[in-house]
Amino acid sequence: IKAAWRWMIATGRTDKLVSAVSSLWLAFIYQGRPQDAFDLYAEAIDSLSEMDPADHPALATLMQGQSYPLFILGRLGDAIEVAQRSLELVRPLGEAGTQLILGGLTSLMLHQTRVGAFADALASAEEALSLARASDNPTFEGLALSQIGVNAGALGNHERAERHLLEALALFRNHDLALFEFWHRWSLGKVYLNWGRLEKARPMFQDALELARGREVIFNTHDHLVGLGRVEFEAGRLDEARSLCLEDLELVREQGYSFYAQVGAHCVLGRLATVEGAGEEAEGHFVEALKVAWPMGALPLVLECLYFMAELRIEQGRSAEAGALID
Q1: Are 272 and 238 in contact (CB under 8 A)?
Q2: How sure is the predictor about 43, in pLDDT bands with cuts at 50, 70 and 90?
Q3: Could you tell me if 297 and 113 are in contact, meaning their C-beta atoms sit under 8 angstroms apart?
């Protein structure tokens, strides 16, 4: 793939360069090599010029692709900036740039969700849904429906979240888009988890984990392990929760990334230690989680860490410190 991309750059074959984006994603991102993906995108982007309008479609597509390794690497601000820039390049194209606008909106709404800008992400997803339906694009329609569901759930509207996520899953199945299905099962599982419906959350995470492992998709395997670990913790199955989260951290050690799942695993293990009265161990896990979440600017993860640290302080009889953390 590297040789092919460099040939495309050297010969100015930007049409072929853009068509290789999905191959790059599958070869590097899904196999746990986000830095390689980012570097190759950067090389391709540097070969084009924003000063040349003819390069804008290719540049926008490459920027949208590059935003994903950026967010996997924890560079959330950069990911949002790149996605927004891609949209600035293609919005002037109007109807001719519909696919590229949809790609930019999809990138943007995913990254906005990660930093906790739920209302902004919801607005981006609703724009994408309207555009996808007008252009009869089931892939982007499903992605938009899913993100509407995720962000509606984050804002507390669980019924709307469930409705849109189930609609997205049905659409993916009806159009043979299984590649997206395991990720959106995870999204639905998270909505059910936050809703307190553990009996519905567990099979979603289990199915998603089985699909991700079957396809050897390392990136998604992390998230599904931790999601299922959270369900088992909430259900009081502490040994199962511990095993799943330790498995995730072992994958992190082997692969060297997946910051979001790493934070989640440490939070579950910290809560386990809190329940078991191992305050020092719990504190260590929460501190490790914050060390990862804080520099990324991932506000929802930071707030979760602080909340669980406050719970620990309450268990230790340090209510004033707990109140300070909540504030």
Answers
A1: yes
A2: confident
A3: no
Backbone angles phi, psi at 32, to 5 degrees: 80, 35
- CA 54 – CA 126 distance, rounded (Å): 29
Q: How far apart are CA 247 and CA 209, in angstroms?
A: 13
Whole-number pLDDT of residue 213 = 79
236, two tokens: 């009081």
Type of residue found at 239: D
| Number of Cβ atoms within 10 Å of the Cβ of 165 | 28
Residue 277 zone, left/alpha/beta (φ > 0; ψ -120 to 50; rest): left
Q: What residue type is assigned to position 158 of the chain? A: H
Cα-Cα-Cα-Cα dihedral of 231, 236, 238, 242, to 10°? 10
Nearest residue to 30 (alpha-carbon basis) of 59, 60, 1 = 1
Split at pLDDT 50, 70, 90, the class of 26 is: low
Q: How far apart are CA 304 and CA 300, in angstroms?
A: 6
The CA distance from 24 to 38, in Å, is: 10
**250-257, long-range: CB < 8 A, 24+ apart:** 251/218, 251/221, 251/222, 251/225, 252/222, 255/32, 255/218, 256/32, 257/32, 257/34, 257/72, 257/73
Dihedral angle computed from the Cα positions of residues 294, 298, 302 and 303, in that order, rounded to the nearest 10 degrees:
150
Measured between alpha carbons, how far is 165 from 178 in angstroms, rounded to an integer?
15
Q: For residue 271, what pLDDT band results from cuts at 50, 70 and 90?
A: very high
Give the global pTM.
0.86
250: tokens are: 């072992």
